[in-house]
Amino acid sequence: QVQLVESGGGLVQAGGSLRLSCAASGRTFSSYAMGWFRQAPGKEREFVAAISWSGGSTYYADSVKGRFTISRDNAKNTVYLHLQMNSLKPEDTAVYYCNAYFGFNEYWGQGTQVTVSS
Question: Helix/strand/coil (H, E, C) string of 20-87?
Answer without folding.
Answer: EEEEEECCCHHHCEEEEEEECCCCCCEEEEEECCCCCCEEECCCCCCCEEEEEEECCCEEEEEEEECC
